[in-house]
UniProtKB/TrEMBL annotation, chains A, B:
Main localisation: cytoplasm
Protein name per the record: Bifunctional chorismate mutase/prephenate dehydratase
Lineage: Bacteria, Pseudomonadati, Pseudomonadota, Gammaproteobacteria, Lysobacterales
Subcellular location: Cytoplasm
Annotated ACT domain residues: 293-370
Naturally occurring in which organism (per UniProt): Luteimonas endophytica
Ranges for domain Chorismate mutase: 14-106
Gene: pheA
Listed EC numbers: 4.2.1.51, 5.4.99.5
Keywords attached to this entry: Amino-acid biosynthesis, Aromatic amino acid biosynthesis, Cytoplasm, Isomerase, Lyase, Multifunctional enzyme, Phenylalanine biosynthesis
Regions crossing the membrane: none
GO molecular-function terms, A-Z: prephenate dehydratase activity
Keyword hit for Isomerase: yes
Catalytically driven reaction(s): chorismate = prephenate; prephenate + H(+) = 3-phenylpyruvate + CO2 + H2O
Length: 374, 374
């Protein structure tokens, strides 16, 4: 080894240009060390499993709060040259491999293989977890509840299309807990039958998707007619019927509807994301940077929601999201899904929840979980 | 750090069971070291790029033979606890991240996202390469030839269904070189409308898929009628029409045809694989364990093939595969695709090829490339 570990930061002068074989020798030495460290890490992880019980399956010692802490530390001490995102991915995979030594985690998702949901499973649990493709989001809830799957990953909102109400509604009747969130970037493509931009005179898409690509459309298809339709799938179906039409949709639609990719990704902002929730049967301790999802039921009385929110507001607990849903219960008439900052086991959220007027409503904690690490 | 790097092998006594926080501290220390080493590795890789030219894109310094050597070394020195396959995957990702620091590799494949081809791209090039989903295998060839993609990944044979002739035929007219191979395990599932094994009285599938699952069928469905059909997709289509029918097909077919997974994976041998070729514009030096794909054109004359093969056979050069195709040329009437052990730049293959009788036929080297690392 040419350098000491403690000198290994990008702040030291970069290695001088050497001949290729000398550089490769350096890299070989580094690889040997990395491999030895990964093996040692796996042995220690194995010890954690043994400490939890002789034949502990991964689900018994998987700790989302601990993984989030490890990844945040990776980001904190990163000073290049690799990006935070790349390093987080590498460490997710290393942790995933160490965890899967006995029985890997089984994670249910909305199949088939190849969906964004599967990508979310891999992003959050690494490729050593075993994904179980299921036919519906309901089935994901069922298989986790029955123990066939250790965890489930379900889509809950898209920065373009908003909240996926049907997923949220499953929490109304499910005892499962939210124990994580995953954010995944998604992309828009311009698709058409001919694949040639000069043929395009009309562009179909969901209104939100058209809005997401407005600048691109103005720049590249200023003369084309934009027509909002019910869904991106409907747009792709229409584009299939005419040579002068195009659809904005996910790349996947090109295959399903036999269209060609004209251009893409074409969304104006590259932060177009879908958010997934990780569901499981247990609650986990704080990670230091957590979010809590609450389901709040209230009577139809003036000021009920205000009374629920007041103890949160007074403590400056920030609220990321609030969605109202009909509750269909005898006592409570409205349900609200509310995401707030913090963990239920920690102040100030713990205090605020303890103070909520039980006559105003009923608060169920769906879960406290680490805020997604990029 | 509790231990010295040189002691880090699984041959030393495993760390004793300690309390959880002490183990986590150990792991945190290891992670810090791994991260520093990965950063240093990335800096050295950056130097390789610079040595090749000031603004070298990844394609300019990507060396498949070097990657294969690194991965073989990883396998050679692995003595647990993680499997070779897991370690190879981790090191692929580390190399991929180091390579993608400037401009990542662009790799074309048969889209859409989510296909086995995309999995093959990720397996071979890691997740830091940029995959380009394309509409056809022809388009993959075109985009690599034009330079839009740096490399392409195309399916060439399945251990169940045999060679994909249409892919091989593209080499008849393409100047592209084979510079790698990827092997991907694929799985078979039993699918039906009800999802209940007790309902199944008939099983449809392609004959080869039925054969692949023979033991499983004998054990679990001894009384069911087995019926071979043209394809697994056709089998799924038939299974959709009756409650007492099932299909053996890929898991993906469950979603496409609205079927439920009864059981799977159910193939008798877990080595059911699809083989992909990596195509590019350049040839690469030997990696030490290589394979060479040849396209041999011969006249329709007795003994022509024998004359071509003799110099190979005399040198004990093993042949993995031979496929004949009509050549449609004026001079040569038959084409054979032949895979042999070794690299064209090394003896004995180099000598054998130099000796082949030019009157017997014409030999084109499609490429010499590292044998796939698991």
């Amino acid at each position: 080894m040419a350098t000491e570990p403690k000198k290994r930061t990008s702040k030291q002068p970069k290695p001088a240009v050497a001949d290729l074989s000398a550089v490769r020798e350096q890299i070989d030495g580094i690889d040997r060390e990395i491999q030895a460290l990964i093996a040692e890490r796996a042995l220690w992880a194995h010890q954690v499993g043994k400490a939890k019980g002789k034949l502990a399956a991964a689900v018994d010692y998987y700790r989302p709060e601990r993984e989030a802490q490890v990844l945040r530390r990776v980001v904190d001490r990163n000073d290049g040259p690799l990006s935070d995102e790349v390093l987080v991915r590498l460490f997710r995979e290393i942790m995933s491999a160490c965890l899967a030594q006995q029985e890997p985690l089984k994670v249910g998702y909305l199949g088939p293989e190849g969906t964004f949901s599967q990508q979310a499973v891999h992003k959050h649990f690494g490729h050593s977890a075993r994904g179980l493709p299921l036919a519906s989001v309901e089935e994901v809830f069922d298989e986790v509840a029955s123990g066939t799957a250790d965890f489930g990953v379900v889509p809950v909102e898209n920065s373009g299309q908003g909240t996926i109400q049907s997923t949220l509604d499953l929490f109304l009747t499910s005892p499962l807990k939210i124990c994580g969130e995953v954010e995944l970037r998604v992309h828009q493509y311009l698709l058409s039958r001919t694949g040639r931009i000069e043929d395009v005179e009309r562009v179909y898409s969901h209104g939100l998707s058209l809005a997401q690509c407005r600048s691109w459309l103005r720049q590249h298809l200023p003369g084309a007619e934009k027509q909002a339709v019910a869904s991106n799938a409907e747009a792709a179906r229409r584009a299939r019927n005419a040579d002068d039409a195009a659809a904005i949709a996910g790349e996947n639609a090109a295959h399903v509807y036999g269209l060609k990719v004209v251009a893409g990704p074409i969304e104006d902002r590259d932060d177009n994301t879908t958010r997934f929730l990780v569901i499981g049967r247990a609650s986990f301790p704080p990670s230091g940077h957590d979010r809590t999802s609450l389901m709040v039921f209230i009577r139809d009385q003036p000021g009920a929601l205000y009374k629920i929110l007041e103890p949160l507001a007074r403590r400056d607990i920030s609220m990321n999201r609030i969605e109202s849903r009909p509750a269909h219960g005898a006592l409570w008439q409205y349900a609200f899904f509310i995401d707030v900052a913090g963990h239920v086991d920690e102040s100030p959220l713990k205090d605020a929840l303890g103070e909520i007027d039980e006559f105003a409503g009923d608060v169920r904690v769906l879960g406290s979980y680490p805020v997604a690490v990029p």
